[in-house]
Amino acid sequence: MFYGWKITLLGSAGNFLLQGSTIYIMNAFIEPLNALYGWTRADISTIMFFAALFGAFSMPVFSSLALRIPLRLIMSAGALLGGLCAIGMGITDNLYVFGLLFILTWISGQAFGGVSANILINKWFSRFQGRAFGICNIGNSLAGAVLPFLLMISIQYTNVKLTWILYGIIILCFVPVCLFLIVEKPSDMGLHADNLANGKKEIRSEVFIPLKTVLQYPEIYYIGFTFGFMLMSSSSVLSQLKLRFTDVGIESFTAMALMCLTAFFCAIAKYLWGWLCDKICPVLVTRILVLFHIGALFLLFIPANLAVILIFTVCFGLAAGGSWAVMPSITAYLFGKERFICTYRAVSPFVILKALGFLIVGFSYSFFGSYDAAYLIFIVILSCCFLLTLLLKPLTTQNTLTVA
């Protein structure tokens, strides 16, 4: 196996254990935490809002650190912090301490997986970059397909506290894996990007561009707002999707299985959308993704029965799973591999927008007794985002957009 794929799988593991799990696992914990401590859905949604907020702020920070500190150390530190914080969440019974630890866990997800893994993959792949981004980010969605169900069973057979502690111990096991497995770039092993046997070793140096220069390009804002709002919709809907299903009369275990099924299709989608970015213009892929996402949200307004819910799980899963795969692909496409870190750190802060979604769904339920108002808001916002994508002009040749 080409060593780059091993790097990709490790990044996917980081996304599975921390980056994606922080969104999905609350489907398993919200109701037990409410029963144990009296914490409400609005309380948990507010914590997730602040966690997503600080997590988004951490993305450009880790992007900048990657220019100075080896990614091996950044990702190892992320696994260490995430594991310790998960154990701490199992120990504390204080809402504010729990919230602080959850915020740190969310931040650690960007260090162990997230933006750090994307930066690493950009160094190892060129021709197959879209697929590599997709496989790496599959971990986000596989977390939703597997972890909530396993954690719910663990809670039922043990308790909330022990489940958090066991989860944290598993994360800590990846600290030595990161230390010994991660290699910064192909040339460090005498290899070249994509492992192309008939090519010369491809050694690309990262081009440093001042942030103020990058921010002069409107494409940064078009990409940032579009994917920031798509992530807002997908993350917030998925974070309480099991509760949505139980609210419309689905039994608890079945509702959790349907939520996990949605996440499973998210995982499939990451590879499919990444593969599509390798085949056709990522700008066109972005437009298709936004329209598909809007259409999937409309399904939530059809009177609920099992057939409609199953169609929704497939469509929304395929729509929600694409953002993390397509966002780095279109950034690399428009600005070039060598400028990826400097441009991606300008795009990544827009992920902060997804924090708003947790407040919107939480307070939609508090004020109206359902999530429908939140879903309608998401549809309107994403319709505006589609108009933004029309301002992105497909390029005739890759990487022709020059940054001075």
Automatic annotation (TrEMBL):
Keywords: Membrane, Transmembrane, Transmembrane helix. Pfam families: MFS_1. The keyword Transmembrane helix applies. The chain crosses the membrane at residues 7-26, 46-66, 73-91, 97-121, 133-158, 164-183, 220-241, 253-273, 280-302, 308-335, 347-367, 373-392. PANTHER family: EG:103B4.3 PROTEIN-RELATED, MONOCARBOXYLATE TRANSPORTER. This is MFS transporter.
